[in-house]
Sequence to fold (420 residues):
Amino acid sequence: MRAINVTTGLKRLGIGAALALGTALPAYAQDAVCGTAAAGGQWLGGAADTSNLGAISTPFDQMALIMSGGQHVSYFSVDGTTDVRLEAESSDGGDPMIDLYDASGALVGSDDDSGGALSARLEQSLPAGNYCMVVRTFDGSGTTAYVRAGRTEMEALTAGTTTDDWSAPGITNGTCTFATATMPFGNGAVNARLSEGGVSASATPNDTPNLGFTLSEPTALTVTATNTTADPVLAIYDENGAWLAENDDFDGLNSRIDFVDALPAGNYCIELSAYNDGSLPIDVKLSTYDPAAAMVGMYERGEASPPLDGSYPITAIGELPARYRTDVQAGSTATWFSFDVTQAGVVAIEAVANGAADPVLILFDDFGRQVSFADDSENSLDPKMVARVSTGTYLVALKLYESNSRAPVRMLFEHFVPAK
Fold:
């Protein structure tokens, strides 16, 4: 460990990293309202007692300067069940997204493009309590964004979306019923084949946007749509056309819907569309929902940290030295590392692919809370992460942004502690 002045030591990392530290992380004396994932923010109204969205007459507006790999954090409260609208719109072509955390640090809502085009718009009914709105970009790049927080009856910042905003030619969204659907999975119930690895079909959104299937008994179901070139979108309806669920970009550009609670026996309609090219065939698969496999999938995508009990492969670095370097054959499936911090301070983590790939870094504490996220930095595809750490164990995921890609990546870990 390097016992140096933290501010001076960080100058060698460059102004981008130093600003990311300032915008994404709390000062030592500052309390985190919603845990480490939403630390370093400010109350929308300047203080806790003036940031109640249920009591304002006009929405709160902010201008957010988001550095590469950084985020903008705002705190607010509601004093009773309140329908809120949170929005973020870039002024320079960036792609902002919003994550919403409650006071326990749990993620309670998220949105990317519901504001129209690349703007984020999250509308949600919230019970009384304190909340943290985190605005960052989808790809980790920097942007300047307008941010608004208010109630749903107030004037919106963004235009919002309609189903036609993402439709491929020839698709009539919202009219997906079992009677209008083709039957690519065959006539009759699919349950017997679900236990044999699932059932699959290939469909072209422009030609066959509505796909029907039948369940003979209540079933916890997973539905996937795969073709990254087409960028598929899934929506599921019941027999009469009532909307049940929708997804885009669950895994890269591919879509997936998990019905953790069993769907009742009956007939259903899948509405298939594509953001990029509705003339391309998309592979659609139905399978029984597997909670253990779903959890492993989250580890593989870097969305949750694996347990430290040896049941999932993690490279243990041990006590983090002042400087640690390693080379990794990285892929779109996350590679995991753990390290131990014995003195509170700052860690700096870099992943360098020199343009051969687009690496991503995600840092978690030992409880599973996301501490930091980094993608591109300083006009390159290589991420650079700076995070304050306390004593304990941390986990880092390294993955490549592109699906089914592999490339050599060099990682550098550095640990700084305050001078005494």
